[in-house]
Amino acid sequence: MLKKYVIVFLISMVPLIELRGAVPVGFSSAFGDALPLIPLYITCIIGNMLPVPFIFFFARKVLEWGKDKKFIGKFFTWCLEKGEKGGKKLQETAGRGLYIALFIFVGIPLPGTGAWTGTLAASFLDMDFKKSIIAVMAGVILAGIIMGLASAGVFGALGAVLH
Questions:
Q1: How many whole angstroms separate alpha carbon 87 and alpha carbon 68?
Q2: Residue pair 63/79 in contact by the 8 Å Cβ criterion
Q3: What are phi and psi of 128, to 5 degrees?
Q4: Do residue 43 and residue 98 come from a single domain?
Q5: Do 91 and 120 belong together in one domain?
Q6: What's the structural domain count of the chain?
Q7: Which residues of 91-104 are buried (b: 16+ CB within 10 A; e: fewer)?
Q8: Are residues 56 and 45 in the same domain?
Q9: pLDDT tens for residues 112-152?
């Protein structure tokens, strides 16, 4: 059982997969029995949030350093462009409600959204660290709820009832 907690914790830390991929793995019978909801959820949130301060303070600097390097330059440039594009789009869409937009951006479990991208965008926009972390954490919690409900089959059951 501990092995599966470690697996979902590590999956939660992986960019682009994050909690969105870890929750379904925790609910599945892959790597052993399904994990109980609350401990799974807490493990995934901690795993997803652990890299966030490092991303906020260091990722942009590392990406700018590596963008002209031979082997990593293309990937680092892609990451920089994604962060800048996400930040600009977030700012244009949100206006004064930037932190609410950050919360929604992170909370809706779609490919390319999440704590990594949202934090990188907040860093590019020079947003306040504390407010950004709160918005990102609230978004991660929302994404966890949505993925938990989806993994438990709630959306499928609602669809069957409504049709």
A1: 22
A2: yes
A3: -65, 130
A4: no
A5: yes
A6: 2
A7: beebeeebbebbbb
A8: no
A9: 889 998 998 898 888 999 999 999 999 999 999 998 888 87
Claim to verify: residue 61 and residue 111 sit in the same structural domain? yes
Residue 94 contacts by C-beta under 8 Å, 6 or more apart in sequence? 100, 101, 102
Residues 85, 12 share a domain: no
CB 135, CB 106: distance < 8 Å: yes
pTM: 0.82
pLDDT digits (tens, 9 = 90+) for 24-64: 999 888 788 889 989 999 999 999 999 999 999 998 899 99
At 117, list the tokens: 């991208």
Q: Judge if 123 and 63 occupy the same domain.
A: yes
Quote the CA–CA distance of 25 and 71 in Å, as a whole number: 32
What phi and psi values does residue 75 have, to the nearest 5 degrees?
A: -65, -45
Q: Residue 35 is part of which domain span?
A: 2-49
Whether 29 and 100 share a structural domain:
no
Q: Which two tokens stand for residue 114?
A: 């999440």
